[in-house]
């Protein structure tokens, strides 16, 4: 994206167009070089999820699962899980550091090992589904829904985009339309820049190893 005579010039593989205002809403899937408003201000993180085959009533009782609410542990490298309506367990955590390794089965296998430690009753249960995708982390661990001149963005959901993105879209539309939004930091403050942005992946790799050691020593 570039600026031409006060307008935004959007360049794609299929063609180009000019726009007076631009909304960036790709979160973790946003291009590294898209707009000065968001470039070098977020870290795409690969999240992996597995879903087991359904558990029986006896297995659920043995596991102690009594709620369908999302639960997260207190580890540095957190795992999160929830009981689905059909009695499957959804279990998620970190994936590959680099996108080129995203499809490596080792990450789903690590999740299964962690699931079995958390709920030993699942040790004999199969994994029926697995997938992965990018989330976006901001430097201050907070989403930002912000209008920067003629560029608006909603980014940095930190893994909570499913629950927050509808509200974010509403507030972003208000800002683009010139309407007032609540006086809260996530609507009034721009994304902070990440220091040493070119080394984000190396830093993430180092943090994962640090977190693994801290969680192990515990």
SSE topology sketch:
Layout: E1 2-4, E2 7-12, E3 15-19, E4 22-24, E5 43-52, H1 57-63, E6 71-72, E7 80-83, E8 89-94, H2 106-118, E9 127-137, E10 144-148, E11 151-155, H3 161-176, H4 185-188, H5 200-217
Parallel strand pairs: 4-11
Antiparallel strand pairs: 1-2, 2-3, 5-8, 5-9, 6-7, 7-8, 10-11
Describe the structure.
The mean pLDDT is 93. With 218 residues, the protein is of the alpha+beta class. Strand 2 (7-12) and strand 3 (15-19) form a beta hairpin. The chain is built from five helices and eleven strands; from the N terminus they run E-E-E-E-E-H-E-E-E-H-E-E-E-H-H-H. The strands form three sheets. A five-stranded antiparallel β-sheet has the order 6-7-8-5-9, with helices on one face. The protein has two domains: 17-42 and 140-203, no CATH class; 44-137, D-Amino Acid Oxidase, subunit A, domain 2 (D-Amino Acid Oxidase, Chain A, domain 2).
Which key phrases capture this entry?
218 residues; D-Amino Acid Oxidase, Chain A, domain 2; five-stranded antiparallel beta sheet; 5 helices; 27% helix
C-alpha geometry: elongated
Total of helices: 5
CATH topology of the largest domain: D-Amino Acid Oxidase, Chain A, domain 2
State the name of the first-level CATH class of the largest domain.
Alpha Beta
Fraction of residues in helices? Answer: 25-40%
Beta strand count: 11
């Amino acid at each position: 994206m570039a600026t031409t005579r006060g307008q935004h010039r959007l360049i794609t593989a299929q063609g180009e167009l000019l726009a007076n205002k631009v909304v960036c809403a790709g979160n973790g899937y946003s291009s590294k070089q898209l707009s000065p408003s968001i470039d070098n201000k977020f870290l795409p993180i690969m999240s992996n999820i597995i879903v087991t085959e359904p558990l029986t009533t006896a297995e659920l009782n043995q596991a102690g699962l009594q709620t369908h609410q999302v639960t997260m542990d207190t580890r540095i490298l957190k795992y999160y899980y929830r009981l689905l309506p059909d009695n499957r367990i959804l279990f998620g955590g970190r994936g590959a550091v680099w996108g080129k390794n995203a499809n490596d089965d080792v990450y789903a296998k690590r999740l299964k090992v962690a699931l079995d430690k958390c709920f030993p009753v699942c040790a004999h249960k199969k994994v029926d589904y697995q997938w992965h995708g990018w989330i976006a982390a901001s430097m201050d661990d907070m989403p930002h829904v912000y209008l920067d001149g003629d560029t608006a963005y909603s980014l940095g959901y930190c893994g909570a985009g499913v629950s927050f993105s509808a509200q974010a879209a509403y507030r972003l539309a208000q800002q683009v339309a010139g309407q007032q939004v609540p006086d809260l930091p996530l609507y009034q403050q721009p994304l902070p820049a990440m220091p040493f942005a070119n080394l984000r992946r190396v830093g993430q790799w180092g943090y994962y190893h640090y977190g693994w050691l801290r969680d192990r020593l515990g």
